[in-house]
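Fold sample X.
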Amino acid sequence: MNSRPYTSSLTVRNICPTIADQPPITLPELVPVIQRFPTDTVSDIEAEMRAQLQQFSGLDLKGKRIAITAGSRGIKGFIPVVRSLVSQLKERGAEPFIVPAMGSHGGATAEGQLAVLENLGITEESVNTPIRSSMDVVKLGEIEEETPVCCDQLAYESDGIIVCNRIKPHTAFAAEYESGLLKMMMIGLGKHIGTTEVHKLGFHRFHKALPDAAKIFLEKAPILFGVAIVDNAANQVARVKAIPADQILDQEKELLAYSKTLIGRMLLSEIDVLVVDAMGKDISGAGMDSNVTGRSATNVQREYTPNIGQIVIRDLSKATKGNAIGMGNADIITSRAAEKIDLAVTYTNALTARTPVGAKVPLIASSDRQAIEIACRNATSKPDQVARLVQISNTKDIEKIWVSTSYLPEIECREDIILDGEPRPIEFDESGNQTWPTIR
């Protein structure tokens, strides 16, 4: 039976005519503040990488074809880390190349995954080495319920694989291993076929699937070592660590625990309305990081996430290329954001991850003003009540945020949130779209 393709784009017209006719409500003034988090930083990535790779000086790499993984996340320090890694491999006579390791992202095509990397700035010129993309895989073995563990064929047929990824809390589950090197193996190198199969187990079983699959990778695939990156809340590299293959399972657990001490989050416990300027796959695998919003398709619980009444999405990031996975965790989006949605890409991601709720389209508002006003009405119990509103650029850049003036008494008593300007009203143009604060 032939299946019909998904409609690739969403056409928006005649939005919320009844809601649009309602009288405007009073919106709060906003004041810019700085949230303060730990500032651990690697000041010289090149020097640190050279120090880290000294432990592998005995490896014979001359003439060896070495595959390096690159995922779909916008990791600020990734390009300098990989460029340094490539340089040192070449100095030792190796022939490194990059393989896109991102499961089904990029529309589950080789060309689409190259486009994802390009949008993240990862090109043959930026990392000074070839990029080879294919969706073909080799089956390495099986984990529970006869679930196949697959590996990118180009990587498998290389002389060695260096698994490179950021380690951080996942947006859909909590366990000893979350986002990191193990996930890069099982999901990233598994490509569309492998990631589709393992997601059938459900996120609630990833705590066992990840280490089980990693053990198969370490036994059957030519894994040389791992390179783990840990970010601070400002998305700077806080630590970069090269890990021998036989130590990846132990050291990833330690690095995840360390990552949780640095992670950016909302330091205000109660928020009526959260306005998010942009969401996207380059920002978080879930479009918006559940460690910030407290919402996920799997209802993962974090002790440090706030209570949020309504979430507004103003736009999609350019690098997400229409993938709006995670929009189902919001309440309202603007027509500007809705018209950029590529349903084919979004549905592929949602169905592969078995989280269709993340692809549900929220209520669509015709403008920023309408979206924010609808959210404020829904989040407050009285028509004349002014909502406690917080606005952020995205869930990755949350050091500088905007908060309503109702938070000022609380902020004045704290050292982890400091004022960074004077209160101003939210400003809109004639079309009802924000001119302050603006999308950054």
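Fold sample Y, listed below.
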Amino acid sequence: MSKQIAINILKQHSQRATIRRIAVLEFLMEQAKAYSLTEMERLLSINIDRATIYRILQIFETEGLVIKMIDLNGTCIYMFNNQNHNDSKKHPHLRCKKCDKIVCLPCLPNEYMDKLDDFEINQIYFLMEGTCKECLSN
């Protein structure tokens, strides 16, 4: 089922539904986590070289299918851009240090964004890390 959804999403974005693109998109759609390029290379169900994964992620980021974040180690991580990200409002994310689950936090207040009006903002990487309730209770 998720394979057909991935194909439909690619078609909606006028992207060719190649085996590799479907595999990367399907993998990210099934996760509540963000993954680095290295992790995806290791975990994908089909064998795809690192450069191909990187090119696919660049296309997906341009199309708005994935969100690119920078973790506290300076590593780029990618997650599927689900309904929480369909609007263009900027909001921070919180990642659990134990289970790696990513949670969207509320949008930044207008006063904050108004301060940025004098700039042309291309990217906002705002990722906080902590420990989620489930991991704290375990």
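Sample Y note: The chain has six helices and six strands.
Also: The chain has a mean pLDDT of 86.
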